[in-house]
Specification:
Layout (H helix, E strand, L loop, with lengths): L1 E5 L4 H12 L3 E6 L15 E5 L14 E4 L6 H6 L3 H19 L2 E7 L21 H20 L3 E6 L2 E2 L12 H10 L5 E3 L5 E2 L2 E2 H13 L4 E5 L5 E2 H12 L6 E3 L15 H7 L7 H12 L3
Parallel strand pairs: 1-2, 1-4, 2-3, 4-5, 5-6, 6-11, 7-10, 8-13
Antiparallel strand pairs: 9-12
Length: 301
């Protein structure tokens, strides 16, 4: 079978490509290399690379079994720096929807847990979403467009609301990488992390292999609607830093500063019941295990 992965040279996308290709499938990767890198695809067979944003999908003539749309600008600061990215994200997603409509193939796309900003945890998919920032508004619009295509054309589209994803191949994201990854890379250089506030804020940290599994299950099941992709467990930033210290073999001493971010997310915690019931998904990698895995990866770079 043939699958398309937009953003396939990026962090989550490249891990997903590796898994798809390992099953003997061919993969077409579309990536503009904004935060991706072709090095992430080294050693993977049956991959065709197309440089460009997700709109390039309309030029592909092959019949495909499904599309994984990961090629979305993936960090809130990107949108603060350039609010026009909201329109770009929606425009490119509409191109993906049109492609899938015409090809009558499955579609799974990257949404975000940032939609739950200001909502008390645990976060459920049926929560009433507020107005937060440019980044989350782009994803809300994408989810509504997916629902519209379902209503008008009978398409089944799954939006995966990712919770604090970390893992290998994130080094090319730089300042846009997950805090955990940034702190580990810094610790390996002997640097101490800068923490906003007192470090009591909490995150549901999700290892990338679990995220890949959730995407695959959504595609295989022809899933429709929004699904949380998290562990259902949350850790304070200070707890995460302590676990990083255990991995690198020294105590890490953060520098605490006043939080300069408006609408800062205090806690993320996925209610995983819908994903478990409808997809059969349950995260398997604990935070301690995941940190051990990425230490093994980033310490060799």
């Amino acid at each position: 079978m043939v699958y398309i992965v937009t953003g396939g040279a990026g962090f989550i996308g490249s891990n997903l490509v590796r898994k798809i290709a390992s099953g003997g499938n061919a993969v077409i990767v579309i990536d503009n290399l904004h935060t991706g890198n072709e090095k992430n695809l080294e050693g993977i067979d049956n991959v065709t690379f197309v440089k460009g944003d997700a709109s390039e999908i309309l030029k592909i003539r092959e019949d495909v079994s499904g599309v994984f749309h990961q090629g979305v600008y993936s960090s809130s600061p990107m949108y603060k720096e350039n609010p026009l990215l909201v329109g770009e994200a929606v425009k490119q997603f509409t191109s993906v929807l049109e492609f899938c409509r015409k090809k009558d193939c499955g579609l799974v796309f990257a949404s975000t847990s940032s939609l739950y900003n200001g909502i008390a945890p645990p976060h459920r998919e049926d929560a009433k979403l507020g107005i937060c920032d440019y980044y989350s508004e782009a994803r809300i619009c994408m989810e509504r467009m997916a629902a519209l295509y379902g209503k008008l054309h009978g398409m089944r589209v799954a939006g995966m609301r990712y919770f604090s994803v970390y893992g290998p191949h994130e080094e090319h994201k730089g300042k846009y990488a997950n805090l955990l990854t940034q702190f580990l890379i810094g610790a390996l250089k002997g640097e101490e992390p800068v923490v906003y506030g007192d470090g009591s804020q909490q995150r549901d940290f999700t290892y990338v292999d679990d995220v890949v599994s959730a995407n695959m299950l959504a595609m295989d099941n022809g899933a429709n609607g929004a699904f949380n992709v998290g562990t259902g467990k949350t850790y304070a930033i200070n707890e995460m830093i302590a676990l990083l210290g255990e991995a690198v073999g020294r105590k890490i001493t953060p520098k605490y500063i006043e939080n300069p971010v408006k609408n800062y997310v205090g806690i993320t915690l996925a209610d995983t019941s819908k994903a478990k019931t409808e997809l059969g998904f349950e995260a398997k990698v604990s935070l301690k295990e995941g940190i051990g895995k990425i230490y093994g990866y980033y310490s060799k770079l």
